[in-house]
Amino acid sequence: MRITSRPADERAGTVYPSVNPARTDDVVAEVLLGDADTFVAACTAAHERQPAWADVPAPVRGRVMGAAGRLVEANAEALARLVTREIGKPYAEALGEVREIVDTCEFFLGEGRRLYGETVPSEMPDKQLFTFRNPVGTVAVITAGNFPVAVPSWYLVPALLTGNTVVWKPAEYAAASAHALYELFVAAGLPDGVLQLVFAHGDDTFAGLSRALDAGLVDKVGFTGSTEVGRRIGELCGQHLQSPCLELGGKNPMVVTPSADLDLAVEGALFAGFGTAGQRCTSLGTVIVHRSVHDEFLRRFTAAVEAAPVGDPAGDVVLGPLLDARFAARFDEYLGWIAPHHTVSGSSATGRITADAPRKGFTGTAEAGLYYHPTIVAGVTETDPIFLHETFGPLVGVLPYDTLDDAIRLANLPGYGLSSAIYTTDPAEVFAFRRRVSAGMVSVNNSTSGAEAHLPFGGNGKSGNGSRQSGRWVLDQFTRWQSMNWDHSGRLQKAQMDVADLTADLGFRL
Prior knowledge:
- It is a single chain.
- A 7-stranded mixed beta sheet has the order 13-14-15-12-11-16-17, with helices on both faces. Strands 8-7-6-9-10 form a 5-stranded parallel beta sheet, with helices on both faces.
- By secondary structure, it is α/β, with parallel strands linked by helices.
- The protein folds into 2 domains: 268 residues, Aldehyde Dehydrogenase, Chain A, domain 1 (3-Layer(aba) Sandwich), CATH 3.40.605.10; 201 residues, 3-Layer(aba) Sandwich (Aldehyde Dehydrogenase, Chain A, domain 2).
- The protein is built from 15 helices and 18 strands.
- The protein is 37% helix and 19% strand.
- α3 packs across α4 and α3 packs antiparallel against α6.
- β9, α8 and β10 form a beta-alpha-beta unit.
């Protein structure tokens, strides 16, 4: 399968092989990569088509999003199989990811009839005040490949619904999945050119984005990816007085209190830490466990991770391979942060699963794929790199705490602020944690992973700039408020000046 940017860029010449990480000799797609010119051309085309798309009534645009959801649902198994093959996500998780697109489309189908403004009372007679939501214009969306179809839908659906055109640059290592989603959206009735798909390397994309912003072709940027790249995009957009929608990395904490159901906490930690091979932005980073239950939690957690099925993502496994060779190389670097004062458990070895470093019960073909041992690192301290930085892969740290104040301090210390969890039966602990944790999302007796399509999603600090996706809150990312006053009095009435004054007797007393 050979794919290219849409519309096709005849100049594209560099070919990127998107391979199956469970069997790296299986090339899923050959991707013809464009360059900065390709990106600018797509932005130009989208910019030209935006006024006509904005003139389509919002309920009609909503029906297009509804049709996209029905098409995704009808093709759910095929799309999920493609996601599993291309990025190694276990099939059950891939099906859940596809379901999230459907949920998002269903939600925004209705929002096409609820892009409400308000009629506001005026301080003067014979004058009406109104507010309206207008599309921002053309949106550039750049997404990672760990959620190759669900996360893009968080941008595409609300941006298109509100009358914007979109230029989407997905991760090249997930290009086949992105191309399939693009085809489903086009089949839903999008007019030609309203959604532009661009494949390019990161440096070319950044150069093209910079030029498109300089030329006034892009009015909003949405980015999901690393904190480092997010900073660069934020700086670039700031030069143009734009505020991007940034969804970045996380070092997501889970606090386990003395009253916690330990088996439930272990189940949540297993899914949050090792689902998608620990490659979610909401993956569990560190379990912060009260000292009184630390050893028992660690024992149970170790047993659960040791028993977790690992291998072929087409089967019933907790984790499959890493996404791509670049992430495997980076994860090897993170494993180098394990120090002598740490205690490692969870598998028979650390690093890549091989014939010389096997994993009991492993179901894949070790030498053919990018499979890694799930790793628990206990004895973590608050100055360790493994505690302070995101470790994108199947690695979870564990450290003890003594007071809830200390647990919250540790939860906030790395400076990320995406997702968090607390396991407790004490409501006072729940609300103390919720009030003081820096994360944009809090789970109680649940995993750090598992957002629902109608709640705001996003983080603070190193995890983002406070922008939110999903639900009605994302509408503020892709629309601008416009106010209008209509004076039908037949005379000039000056606000704050020509206002009736009914005098109060403020000295009155009973």
